[in-house]
Amino acid sequence: MSMYLPPEFEVVRSAERCVNCRLCERECSFLVHTYDKKTGRMRADSAKCVNCHRCVCMCPTHALKVVKSDDAYRPNANWSMQTMHEIYKQAESGGILLSSMGNPNPQPVFWDRLLINASQVTNPPIDPLREPMETRLWLGKRTARIERDAQGRLKNTLAPQLRLEVPVLFSAMSYGSISYNAHEALARAAEELGTYYNTGEGGLHRDFYRYGGNTIVQVASGRFGVFKEYLERAAAIEIKMGQGAKPGIGGHLPGAKITEDVSETRMIPQGADAISPAPHHDIYSIEDLRQLVISLKEATNYQKPVIVKVAAVHNAAAIASGIARSGADMIAIDGYRGGTGAAPTRIRDNVGIPIELALAQIDQRLREEGIRDEVSLIAGGSVRSSADVVKAIALGADACYIGTAALLALGCHLCRSCHTGNCNWGIATQRPELVKRLDPETGYRRLVNLVTAWKHEIQEMMGGMGINSVEALRGNRLMLRGVGMTDRELSLLGVRYAGENM
Predict the structure, then answer these.
(1) How far apart are CA 336 and CA 246, in angstroms?
(2) Which of 57, 435, 445, 449 has the greatest number of C-beta atoms within 10 Å?
(3) Parallel, antiparallel, or unpaired: how do β-strands 480-482 and 114-116 relate?
(4) Same domain as 64, residue 168
(5) Do 169 and 88 share a structural domain?
(6) How many structural domains comprise the chain?
(7) Low-confidence ranges of the chain (pLDDT < 50)
(8) 164 neighbors 399 (Cβ within 8 angstroms)
(9) Closest by Cα among 175, 343, 200, 345 to 257
(10) Looking at the domain assignment, is residue 260 inside a domain?
(11) Each residue of 101-112: pLDDT tens digit?
(12) For residues 434 and 422, is the Cβ–Cβ distance under 8 A?
């Protein structure tokens, strides 16, 4: 028995405006639109619609709109329509539910409950248009021994660093999960902005070796595409231990996305599912992690800083303490609202904790142990605006990873269908006819515009606080105030309530 499920969205077509040009039919990779030769009219199968808005945006006569379907079951506060649909699907398929992008549920967003303090009179603000405002920073170990050569000159004992012109990096998105054109746009934007993009666990396409000075390569449990030249081409190496959208879960790229090009880059058979295990099978302790950190440094002659990426979980502060002692130069923390190309729905929506709480606790733990300068912290997981970046830095981050925001700049409409490989915007797909819809020249320029705008806003906000450098903002929680939070939440964040004096 196949259970009928009413469509989640409804495609509404204006008969007066529609001219039967069939553009919607050609643009929709989900086969929603068809032309009925008998009636000479366009039809829409709303059950197939994922609300990506490609047809709406491309319709030359504005004849289309997609609305939330009002076909509903009898109301039940405990059993929502979505919950019922998920049970019907699993009863029919016997499989786990897969979802894309971040957690869409109405969980607390602490960024929105944090307000930025401002300076007036006694500590006057700074005008960023007329006075220096430093957004440049370095990521890596800050501890160094003071040594001099035979002539008494200072010797550089500082570990390798990453120099950023703005405290924003593009987070890990693998070639395979996103398209060649999307990777090209990210790489070119990182080079122009003076920041970095992350290859994810999919290896580095040889065409992008020329962007190596702005590339972070990833070593994940599957070790896809990892070899000596791959490591040497990068500016930094990231060991992926966990991901915010699916803590404790490995990666999975469907075989349909493993094209010839992706196969060569990942060094795996074409058409075969790329499954990376949950654990690294050579890492079961901090000591094991340290061995991999040292091995990667030795393989690159100690010229590349090493990042360890972990998911935000309840004991993240203790984990970070161990990582800081492992020899790693940076820790990337990924919160539970982070995006993903594919994740089990139950994991995505129920596992992990908010990045704000994890970040604050990690920064505090490292300071208490006197090892904060041993590592830099990179925060990610639904960083949506320049204000989120400023708040993250004030909570203790050195810089932020952005992923979903970058994809939105490229044209993503968050239809959360990445795992199907049918992305109508040419981003999360390997189908050639869809990939070419994303112009890397336009995409790279939009990414540059986004981060440039954020940089200006960051300078404006810092100026309003009377702070003239990102470094002075780092961990400065006095510049934050909370609203709508419990005393326990404020305590975990290390922030005072709005209106409370020093």
Answers:
(1) 8
(2) 435
(3) antiparallel
(4) no
(5) no
(6) 2
(7) none
(8) yes
(9) 175
(10) yes
(11) 888 888 889 999
(12) yes
Q: Is 42 helix (H, G, I), strand (E, B) or coil?
A: strand
Tokens of 172: 């890990």
Residue 253 bridge partners (DSSP): 274
Tell me which residue has tokens 């795992």. 419
Beta-ladder partners of 236: 216
Token output for 206: 């040889």
**Domain identity same for 200 and 70:** no
* Domain match, 182 and 70 both: no
What CATH code is carried by the domain that includes residue 90?
A: 3.30.70.20
Whether residue 78 is contained in a domain is answered as yes
Domain of 399: which CATH number?
3.20.20.70
**Which helix or strand (DSSP H or E) is residue 399 part of?**
strand 399-402
Q: What per-residue string of b and e applies to 398-435 under the rule 16 or more CB within 10 Å gives b?
A: bbbbbbbbbbbbbbbbbbbbbbbbbbbbbbbbbbeebb
Please name the residue ranges forming H helices in 73-140: 81-93
Q: Does 472 map to a domain?
A: yes
Residue 203 to residue 226: CA distance in whole angstroms: 6
**Can you tell me the distance from the alpha carbon of 209 to that of 215, in angstroms, rounded to the nearest whole number?**
9
Q: Which of 289, 279, 255 is nearest to 269 (CA)?
A: 255
DSSP class of residue 158 equals: P
Distance CA 227, CA 49 (A): 41
Residue 82 lies in a domain: yes
> Alpha-carbon distance 62 to 445, whole Å?
27
Q: What is the pLDDT of residue 391?
A: 98
Is residue 206 within 8 A of residue 229, CB to CB? The reply is: no
Q: Give yes or no: residues 90 and 207 share one domain.
A: no
Q: Residue 450: exposed, middle, or buried by beta-carbon count in 10 A (0-12, 13-18, 19+)?
A: buried
User: C-alpha distances in angstroms, 386 versus 130, 283, 327, 462, 498?
Assistant: 21, 36, 31, 11, 21
- The reported pLDDT for the residue numbered 450 is 97
In this structure, what token pair is assigned to residue 104? 């869409």
Q: Which of 402, 47, 425, 385 is nearest to 189 (CA)?
A: 402
Closest CA to 404 of 50, 99, 101, 51: 101
Domain range for 480 is: 137-142+159-226+235-286+305-497
Identify the residue whose tokens are 């320029």: 445
pLDDT confidence of residue 148: 86
CB 389 within 8 A of CB 167: yes
Q: Residue 36 has which token pair?
A: 């009925």
* Contact (Cβ atoms closer than 8 angstroms) between residue 171 and residue 147: no
Beta strands 98-99 and 147-148, pairing class: unpaired
Which of 236, 196, 227 has the alpha carbon at shortest distance from 406? 196
Per-residue pLDDT reduced to its tens digit, 42-101: 999 999 999 999 999 999 999 999 999 988 888 888 998 889 989 998 998 898 888 888
